[in-house]
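User: What would this chain look like folded?
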Amino acid sequence: MARSARAKPKKPARPAAGERGGNASFAALAADALKRGEPDSIPDELLRKTLAAAVKVYAAKAERRGGALAPFPEGTVTATESVVAACALIRAADLNMFDVAMWFHRAPGG
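Assistant: Here's the prediction, encoded as structure tokens.
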């Protein structure tokens, strides 16, 4: 009996970020997307839900700890990235710079 030639199995296509299993963290998915130069591979809705949840948890922890919680490790986010995100958050919350100045100068945890 002759052996039939076995076809080499094809490598499965890389699923979109929103289709992947729950094993990968959002941070890992985002880092991978940025490394590939494909930030749009992260679905907007996944980004919004993750960002909203992260902001809520950060605010709760910062309030509880009196503001003594760094939002990210030093050197991991650039000044430009920080300002772009901060401005988007300020606009999304319908704040103005006067509102922000009042919060910025309040005592931590107060």
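The CA atoms of residues 47 and 83 lie 18 Å apart. If you want, I can go into more detail on any region.
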